[in-house]
Structures are given as C-alpha cells and as structure tokens.
Amino acid sequence: MENLICKYKDKELVSGKETILCGIVNVTPDSFSDGGKWFGVDKAVEHAKDLIKNGATMLDIGGESTRPGSTYVEIEEEINRVVPVIKRLKEEVDVPISIDTWKADVAKAAIEAGVDFINDITGFLGDPKMAEVVGKSDVGAILMFNPKIARPNHKSSQNFPSFGGEGVFTEEELKSFEKMDITELMVKYLEKSIEYAEREGISKERIMLDPGIGFALTKKENLQLINDINVLKEMGYFTFLGVSRKRFITNILSENNIDSSGETEEGFENRDEASAVLTAIAAFRGVEVLRIHTTKHHRISQLIADSVRLNKIQEDLDLKPYSL
Question: Which segments constitute the Pterin-binding domain (predicted)?
C-alpha cells in the first residue's frame, strides 16, 4: 500500500514513518484517569511540555470528560478551559495540536486560537454544525466511530452521556445496527462521517479515522476493532487510535488477578504497562497516531515496534557484546 498523506493548514504528515505519539492533556476536573491533575492553564502547559520532552510529537487537548457517567460541560465553560491552553502552547511548542470536542462552537473557538486538528468523538454526527465549521477552516479532522450514537439502546451505551446525533440515522437503520457485526457497523458509521465531510469540502487528505475504542463497546468488540484496525487503512485514511487506560484493559488484568486499581501506584503502573503492549501492537501494524496518557512506557514500546516494522531502513550494525 502506498504511503498516505494527512494535511492540516500548510503542513502534512506522511504514513510509513515512525508512529506519532499524541499526548493527552485533560484540562478537566473529572477525567477518568487523571481528573484534576492538569486542571488550569499553567499545570496543563507544563504537562504538555513534559510529554513533548519525553517523546510525544502531537498533543490532544480536552476540556470535557467523556467517560462513562460523565456530565455535559457547557460550551462557554469548555471554551474557557481549553482556549487559553491552546494559545499558550501555540506560542511555546512546535507540534500539531488537536482539540478533543464534539461541539461546533468549541471547535470554532479552538480554531481561532490556532489549533491544528479537530478531534470529534462523534465523527461530525453529534453537532450538525461541526462539519461546516471545520470545512470553513484549513485544519485537519479526526473522525471517530461512536457506538453510543449508532446503538443508543445497547446495554453498553447506557452509562455514557448523550453526544447528540439525534436523527442522523433512521429508525430502520438504528434497528439494523443492533445486531450488525461491530467492524461492519464502524465502517458504515464512518462512511456517513466522510459523507458529511465531503459535503463541506473537506478533502480526504485532511481526515484521520478513529475506531472509537472504549466508547459503548463490549470487551470483545473493543478487542475486535483493535484487531481489525487495518480496515481503516484499507479505506485510505490515516488511523488514530486511543486505547491508553481504557476500561477493557483493566478488566483483562483484574480477571487474571493483576492489580489494576486506580487507587494504587502498582495498579496504575500495571494499567500503563498493559496499555503500552497495545501501543507496540498498533505501531507494528502501522497505525499512524496513538493517543496516550504518559510517555514512560509508550515511547519504549513504540520505538521497538517501529524498529521491527521499519527494519529495512535500520542501520546494519554489528553489535558489540555487553561489557561487564
């Protein structure tokens, strides 16, 4: 397969190279894994710089938690959380920055502040104005498959807040989605997202696709979509994957009597080690961008996996024995 290009503003990313680690900066008091830790402009900027220093080459700024059980953040409040952070970072760092929001007004304010990508967890289907806002700009778009919108009555959807999207699919379509294979449903959903993008003049090269891991999916469905990640690449798009600290990972650990508690240092360490295994798998499979909470484990996993995947361009070096 030929290398893919993803364009944003006057720049571009090219696939077939080292995997991009996109560091998460949650400017929220209630994120599921680090709520409140980076809440406030100074703390958020300091954390972002630390992520870059240790290997992240992209940032994703979020002002609203979308975890199960989270509550809606008013548009003005979300803007007040993220815009000052974006402005500071655009002055002080030189990496692409995305804003994690599904609200068009927040996206518009972020674009005016200088953001490079809109990371929409509804894939343009939540807020009817989102595709238009992005279409009138030159930023890139990250479009996520959101099972909450595709299967609102599914048991796995009940713990998530509303992300809009009412009326996007007909009742007949929603009924057919209930028993559809999850990979097939992901493709159908993202085809609708792409349709919305094309309608607003957003070219294919400005889009990344995200399989929506952790959003209203069963454990088995999460694992299937990760295994089927190449489906997005076969559609001809950059892939953007976020699996760090997701609930199904902690479930796998706890079922095997491994501490995954968010209340203990060992539990958090185990979560990150397990997440980094998925980073290695994804990097080896050629996923272009990985959304991560920390660089400590993920950078090592990404480096080793990329070295294997990109073996043809590695230095043909005769290794010396270990010194005592």
Answer: 19-305
| pLDDT tens per residue across span 222-249 | 999 999 999 999 999 999 999 999 999 9
CA 195 to chain centroid, in Å, comes to 21
Number of CB atoms found within 10 A of residue 149's CB = 29
* Cα distance between residue 74 and residue 138, in whole Å: 26
- 233 φ/ψ angles, rounded to the nearest 5 degrees: -65, -40
DSSP of 77-115: HHHHHHHHHHHHHHHH--S-EEEE---HHHHHHHHHHT-
* d(C-alpha 187, C-alpha 145), whole Å: 8
b/e 214-252 (16+ beta carbons within 10 angstroms → b): bbbbeeebbebbbebbebbbeeebbbbbbbbbbbbbbee
Contact 17, 57 (CB under 8 A): no
> Which residues make Cβ contacts (< 8 Å) with residue 311, sequence separation at least 6?
none
Q: At what angle do helices 104-113 and 75-92 cross, to 10 degrees?
A: 20
Pair of tokens at residue 149: 């919108």
Higher pLDDT: 173 or 1? It is 173
Question: Rounded distance, CA 300 to CA 280, Å?
Answer: 9
User: How far is Cα 79 from Cα 105, in angstroms, rounded to an integer?
Assistant: 8
Topology at the third CATH level for domain 5-310: TIM Barrel (3.20.20)
pLDDT at 35: 47
